[in-house]
């Protein structure tokens, strides 16, 4: 072999080596990148759970969501019997057992709420230690998705306020509500008001008037609170007018002055909600993750009543009209 041929073979071999090296380096980089950034496998605790707490023999609703934050950390949020959704900074999870702690909100006591549980397929169960040191047992099931595959066909509107009667309603406890000239009036804090009939998907029109500093709410299916507050001049917030309490913030604050009538036009289809407040869309087809504090139960897959909050101060409602889906 002459010198020229040897030189050509050497150059060719060098080129082959560089090609192979580049390919190997690319594959190695892709594998490292995939291992660093690929979505981690879901743990069995991840997702949303509808929970029922045993409080001295009576059921009380709660809700839990757990999700990944990076590869190795589980975080979430929790709704207890009262209050709004609370963030969980770390959910400890191993061998289908989990635990976390969160600060108290409206409960009596100063200690953290401590929750321990076990995953068993599509159910969970465990114990909760309250802020004042009491131990409660609880059970939970995976929350339904409630995704609709077709648009609803609306039925006939039902008027729930009329004349001087409360035929469509009943009070939870001693009734302080008064029906007069089509207005439902709660002159002081007292019982909540609940419809006798239950509903699934619906469109709702409601008008309300609230005095300075008072507070109320309309619970959709008895589980998701559309907040009613004296909020004129405030910034939009999770606990002010137009919000789904603790979960969804309105895009703007459109509350009128205390003592003036406000309107809600609400459409609820599955978990998807649109709220038009005083003629402006403040929540547009957003998903409600779970139940809010004060819900009647955690059975999200079932129809539920309307519930008007009457235990937070004086309030008046009128022209409540619901149009259920067929």
Automatic annotation (TrEMBL):
- Source taxon at top rank: Bacteria
GO terms (molecular function) for this protein are: hydrolase activity
* Cited InterPro entries: AL/BT2_dom (IPR010496)
Q: Per the database record, which ranges form the 3-keto-alpha-glucoside-1,2-lyase/3-keto-2-hydroxy-glucal hydratase domain?
A: 158-322
Name the UniProt record assigns to this protein: 3-keto-alpha-glucoside-1,2-lyase/3-keto-2-hydroxy-glucal hydratase domain-containing protein
The species this protein was found in: Pseudarcicella hirudinis
């Amino acid at each position: 072999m002459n010198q020229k041929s040897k030189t050509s073979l050497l150059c060719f071999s060098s080129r082959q080596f560089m090609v192979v090296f580049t390919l190997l380096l690319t594959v190695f980089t892709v594998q490292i990148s995939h291992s660093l950034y690929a979505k981690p496998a879901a743990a069995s605790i991840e997702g949303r759970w509808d929970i029922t707490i045993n409080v001295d023999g009576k059921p009380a609703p709660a809700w839990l969501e757990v999700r990944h934050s990076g590869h190795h950390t589980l975080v979430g949020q929790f709704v207890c019997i009262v209050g709004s959704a609370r963030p969980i900074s770390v959910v400890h999870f191993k061998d289908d057992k989990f635990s976390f702690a969160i600060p108290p909100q409206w409960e009596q006591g100063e200690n953290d709420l401590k929750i321990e549980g076990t995953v068993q397929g599509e159910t969970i169960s465990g114990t909760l230690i309250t802020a004042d040191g009491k131990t409660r047992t609880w059970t939970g099931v995976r929350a339904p998705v409630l995704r609709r595959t077709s648009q609803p066909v609306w039925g006939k509107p039902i008027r729930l306020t009329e004349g001087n009667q409360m035929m469509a309603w009943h009070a939870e406890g001693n009734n302080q509500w008064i029906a007069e000239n089509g207005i439902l009036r709660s002159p002081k804090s007292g019982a909540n008001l609940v419809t006798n009939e239950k509903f699934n998907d619906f469109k709702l029109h409601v008008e309300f008037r609230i005095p300075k500093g008072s507070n109320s709410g309309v619970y959709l299916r008895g589980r998701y609170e559309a907040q009613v507050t004296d909020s004129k001049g405030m910034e939009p917030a999770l606990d002010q007018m137009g919000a789904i309490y603790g979960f969804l913030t309105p895009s703007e604050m459109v509350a009128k002055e205390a003592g003036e009538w406000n309107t809600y036009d609400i459409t609820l289809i599955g978990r998807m909600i649109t709220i038009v407040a005083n003629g402006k869309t403040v929540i547009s087809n957003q998903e409600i993750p779970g139940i809010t504090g004060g819900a009647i139960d955690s059975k999200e897959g079932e129809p539920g009543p309307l519930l008007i909050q009457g235990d937070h101060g004086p309030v008046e409602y009128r022209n409540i009209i619901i149009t259920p889906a067929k």
